[in-house]
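step=encode ok
step=design start
structure_in=
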């Protein structure tokens, strides 16, 4: 079911946000919909809903809507200041509300349940408050209460002390209200349900995490946060475990390649060095020794350069070995021209 941001009367009696957490499967489930339909979805797997998703435990906290650019504030004030001063018509949407409707629709369509629910509840509140006394002020208070976590979580993670303190500041009685749907029939888990504020959902979640002894970790591979039963777990899932295995294999191959390159270089270096040593032992002329030494030094300098290029990936190992073979032919030619006494 898709929510329509239009100017008709509120289409739903009571749209709620439901969370249930499964410690055994380390998962969470979020459902957004009219209260009666949500019960049907839980108990009989039927009913209309706006959102129903099972995700890894903690996903709601890790991906909770934020408001760093204060876009929510701008659009809510637009509705507060202009939306209650215009004449509503089902046939056409006033220009003053177009920007706000597009903003809320975009948040609804982004797929994050906290943003989706806020968008639905804000528009439903606007339609409900439009024709009542002091409706603009009631709308403003309800919207501010709903969006309060967006501001705090723009600066801190939900589980950080600073975030908890910010969320608990000036906590109103209405914000602390929450429903608990206990396990019945085919509903095996306790569910927490909210209508007007996310604060109860966040605090319930954090309390459950502390009660179960779970810990927050940052994945070593992707850098995302996840919940785990022990700090010994450093990877968030199978994809990152595969990525780490591939990287470990790559590093292993890289080390082997480096060792192989060094061994090949050492063999050829020793070949040249042995030729120079024999030349010196043969009582060759100083000019011949000097000429061979110069050739040897040039080879060594170029060989080190090419060896490092192989390690950095700029040159293939096969190209390096081919070049070394060519240089060995050169030294063999020099020795041959120097006479048998050099051998």
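sequence_out=
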């Amino acid at each position: 079911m898709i929510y329509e941001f239009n100017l008709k009367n509120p289409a739903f009696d009571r749209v709620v946000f439901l969370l249930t957490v499964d410690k055994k499967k380390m998962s969470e489930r979020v459902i957004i919909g009219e209260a009666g339909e949500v019960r049907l979805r839980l108990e009989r797997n039927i009913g209309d809903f706006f959102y129903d998703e099972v995700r890894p435990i903690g996903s709601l906290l890790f991906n909770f809507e934020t408001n760093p650019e204060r876009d929510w504030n701008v659009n809510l004030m637009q509705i507060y200041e202009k939306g209650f001063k215009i004449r509503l018509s089902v046939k056409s949407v006033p220009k003053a509300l177009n920007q706000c409707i597009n903003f809320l629709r975009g948040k609804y369509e982004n797929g994050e349940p906290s943003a989706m629910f806020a968008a639905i509840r804000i528009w439903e509140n606007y339609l409900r408050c439009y024709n009542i006394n002091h409706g603009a002020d009631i709308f403003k208070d309800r919207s501010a209460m709903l969006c309060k976590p967006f501001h705090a979580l723009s600066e801190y993670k939900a589980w950080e002390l600073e975030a908890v303190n910010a969320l608990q500041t000036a906590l109103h009685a209405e914000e602390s209200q929450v429903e608990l749907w206990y396990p019945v029939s085919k509903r095996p888990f306790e569910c927490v349900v909210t209508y007007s504020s996310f604060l109860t959902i966040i605090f319930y979640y954090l309390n459950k995490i502390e009660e179960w002894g779970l810990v927050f970790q940052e994945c070593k591979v992707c850098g995302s946060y996840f919940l785990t039963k022990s700090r010994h777990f450093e990877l968030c899932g199978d994809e990152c475990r595969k990525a780490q295995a591939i990287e470990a294999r790559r590093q292993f191959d890289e080390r082997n390649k480096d060792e192989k390159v060094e061994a090949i270089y050492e063999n050829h270096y020793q070949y040249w060095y042995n030729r120079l040593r024999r030349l010196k032992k043969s009582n060759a002329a100083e000019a011949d020794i000097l000429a061979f030494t110069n050739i040897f030094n040039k080879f060594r300098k170029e060989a080190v350069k090419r060896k490092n290029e192989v390690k950095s990936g700029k040159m293939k190992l096969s190209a390096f070995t081919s070049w070394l073979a060519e240089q060995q032919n050169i030294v063999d030619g020099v020795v041959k021209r120097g006479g048998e006494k050099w051998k």
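step=design ok
step=annotate ok -> The chain has eleven helices and seven strands.
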